[in-house]
Amino acid sequence: MAERDRPQKPSDPRPESDGGYNAGMAVFSYIIGGIIVWSLIGWGLDTLLKTRWIVLVGALLGIAGGLYLAGKHGLFTQQRDQGKANPRDDDAEGESGR
Predict the structure, then answer these.
(1) Virtual CA dihedral for 8, 9, 11, 12, nearest 10 degrees?
(2) Model's pTM, two decimal places?
(3) What is the rounded CA–CA span in Å between residue 95 and residue 48?
(4) What is the DSSP letter of 14?
(5) pLDDT for 3-21, tens place per residue?
(6) Domain ranges, ordered by start, for the chain
(7) Residue 61's closest CA among 35, 43, 84?
(8) What is the Cα–Cα distance from 25 to 29, expressed in whole angstroms?
(9) CB 59 within 8 A of CB 42
(10) Reduced to 3 states, what is the DSSP secondary structure of residue 98?
(11) Spatial CB neighbours of 35, under 8 Å, sequence gap ≥ 6
(12) Does residue 78 register a pLDDT over 50?
């Protein structure tokens, strides 16, 4: 009867560090997607205008756009939020007050 009164543990707890990995993958996909899309647009314009430099401008624009979207979605601020939730332990550096 005592076993029924105990709260049950969750069988599969989620790791706390999963959010950083997902945010990193989102930033990576924004940047790679931006490079691909804007490079293709630049390549198309290069073909139409008979130039060879617009594809490079398109790739740089894709990188900037991917970083902008990641910042707009708040993916760079997640690391700072985790630091606030887990305050730093000053004793971990060897300052135990001896």
Answers:
(1) 150
(2) 0.61
(3) 67
(4) P
(5) 666 666 666 555 555 678 8
(6) 25-74
(7) 35
(8) 6
(9) yes
(10) coil
(11) 59, 62, 63, 66
(12) no
**What is the reported pLDDT for 7?**
65
Spatial separation of the C-alpha atoms in residues 27 and 34, rounded to whole Å = 11
**Half-sphere CA count of 76, side-chain side, radius 13 A:** 8
The packing angle between helices 18-49 and 54-72, to 10°, is 150
9: DSSP letter: P
What pLDDT score was predicted for residue 14? 54
Angstrom distance (rounded) from CA 6 to CA 3: 5
| CA 20/CA 31 separation, integer angstroms | 17
71 residue type, one letter: G
Phi-psi domain of 15 (left: phi exceeds 0; alpha: psi -120 through 50; beta: other): beta
Buried b / exposed e along 68-91 (16+ C-beta atoms within 10 A): ebbeeeebeeeeeeeeeeeeeeee
